[in-house]
From TrEMBL:
Major localization listed first in the record, in broad terms: secreted
GO MF entries: endonuclease activity; hydrolase activity; nucleic acid binding; RNA nuclease activity
PROSITE patterns in the record: RNASE_PANCREATIC
CDD domains attached to this UniProt entry: RNase_A_canonical
Keywords: Disulfide bond, Endonuclease, Hydrolase, Nuclease, Secreted
The name this protein goes by in its record: Ribonuclease like 2
A GO cellular-component term linked to this record: extracellular region
Pfam families assigned to the protein according to its UniProt record, in alphabetical order: RnaseA
Amino acid sequence: MKIKSNYDIKPRYQKFLNQHLGPHVNEHACDREIRNRDITASGTANGCKEVNTFIQANKNDIKVVCCKGGTPQGNNLFKSNQRFPLVTCKLQSGQRHPNCKYRGNKSTRYIVLGCDRGWPVHYEEGIINA
């Protein structure tokens, strides 16, 4: 019996971390963080992403949502059992990276992550009332 490795997940997990791991990101740093991390709209070479959310927690606290720290929602989505502090960056102006201007907003909410074999690979949404 051959065990499927997690090797194919690693690039997707790294992209997830680059786009959403932000334990020290504050709401005034959206422009700088998104520019420095080279975050663009998916499917475009350098289009501005409409919204990007940074989770203010460490990797392990986020990863646990994909197993015992989350509730399955179907389609490989898991809702966190606890609220997370977030910084949500919404595009205010600009269409091409690096000229994107964002406004940041802090909140605390449950998060929904897309997971693959226990690894977070997609940020689905934040839920205020659950």
